[in-house]
């Protein structure tokens, strides 16, 4: 009985999360499979700061051994930092590319790609029942931003209706509409967060919370739209 209980406890134990280095390796592999040029960008991100550090060591240290070593160490540390930043950006782009065009993709950006100044939900506020095109809402310093997911023809009616609702509840607050979809003029999914952060600020920080609370009274669409993935938790596919 004791053995069977211990076996049950072992089998029911949650799987151990991979370590930080293993996670980085998985993200690196996923990114490399998506973009064959990514490895060269990452190599350059590490090598260039190291070369700058070495150049400064020879040109500025003036024969001082301690300064010579410090410049090289700083160059290596800067190379690691820039490498991590580039890897994160490329991995995020690769992850978003895997869900781009799917219902719930904009929700994934809202969940993991926006800054803290935004108040947004990964579920849409309006949905076209036939096409599953959707409208998402975010509130920040720029006011209210409505993001459409789908073609303009599929989202035109529901986004106009949502604009009327928002204008009625929060008069005077700017409303910006951004489109993520297959059209050439639409915003690529991986650029959505940056595009939202470039919208000009129009309201104060305290107003953001008040506007968000007012809009929450509108309720939220309850249709089962799939949630997006967290880009930094994407696992690489098995090699074929």
Tell me briefly what this model is.
The protein has about 240 residues and is α+β, with helices and mostly antiparallel strands. Helix content is about 55%, strand content about 10%.
User: What is the structural class?
Assistant: alpha+beta
| Alpha carbon gyration radius | 24 Å
Helical content class: 40-55%
Count of helices? 8
The ordered string of helix (H) and strand (E) elements is: HHHHHEEEEHEHH
Descriptive overview:
This protein is of the alpha+beta class. It has 2 domains: 19-99, no CATH class; 105-224, no CATH class. The protein has helices at residues 2-12, 20-34, 38-60, 65-99, 105-112, 152-169, 192-197, 205-216, and strands spanning 119-120, 126-127, 134-140, 143-149, 175-180. Strands 1, 2, 3, 4 and 5 form a 5-stranded mixed beta sheet that branches. A hairpin with a 6-residue loop joins strand 2 (126-127) and strand 3 (134-140).
Fold blueprint:
Elements: H1 2-12, H2 20-34, H3 38-60, H4 65-99, H5 105-112, E1 119-120, E2 126-127, E3 134-140, E4 143-149, H6 152-169, E5 175-180, H7 192-197, H8 205-216
Parallel strand pairs: 4-5
Antiparallel strand pairs: 1-3, 2-3, 3-4
Helix pairs in contact: 2-4, 3-4
Task: Give the tags.
alpha+beta; 53% helix; single chain; 240 residues; elongated; disordered C terminus; five-stranded mixed sheet
């Amino acid at each position: 009985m004791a053995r069977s209980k211990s076996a049950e406890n072992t089998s029911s134990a949650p799987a151990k999360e991979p370590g930080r280095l293993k996670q980085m390796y998985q993200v690196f592999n996923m990114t490399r499979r998506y973009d064959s040029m990514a490895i060269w960008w990452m190599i350059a991100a590490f090598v260039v700061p190291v070369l700058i550090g070495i150049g400064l060591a020879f040109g500025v240290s003036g024969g001082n051994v301690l300064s010579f070593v410090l410049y090289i160490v700083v160059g290596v540390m800067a190379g690691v930092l820039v490498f991590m930043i580039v890897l994160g950006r490329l991995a995020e782009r690769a992850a978003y590319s895997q869900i781009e065009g799917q219902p719930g993709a904009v929700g994934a950006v809202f969940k993991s790609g926006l800054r803290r100044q935004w108040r947004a939900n990964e579920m849409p506020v309006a949905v076209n029942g036939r096409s599953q095109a959707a409208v998402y809402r975010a509130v920040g310093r720029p006011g209210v931003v409505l993001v459409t997911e789908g073609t303009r023809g599929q989202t035109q009616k529901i986004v106009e209706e949502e604009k009327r609702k928002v204008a009625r509840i929060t008069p005077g607050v700017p409303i910006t509409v951004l489109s993520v979809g297959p059209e050439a003029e639409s915003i690529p999914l991986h650029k959505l967060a940056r595009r939202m952060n470039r919208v000009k600020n129009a309201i104060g920080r305290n107003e953001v919370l008040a506007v968000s609370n007012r809009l929450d009274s509108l309720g939220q669409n309850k249709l089962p739209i799939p949630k997006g993935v967290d880009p930094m938790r994407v696992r690489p596919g098995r090699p074929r």
